[in-house]
Design a protein that fits this description.
single chain; globular; alpha+beta; about 60 residues
Length: about 60
Amino acid sequence: MRNQCGVSVGTFNEALRLLQSRGLVTVKPGPGGGLFSGEQSPRGPAGELSPRPRRAAE
């Protein structure tokens, strides 16, 4: 996945830790393990990762 995205190991690991801390993914090591998606909130993952864009007047 990291190679497909074209990012460094450090950047990928940092993003993975962020997703784990927000409950969006779970990493299970060993046989049968891997990267698994967590439950999505009704707002969806984009709403969890970044604030809603606001106009300068808001």
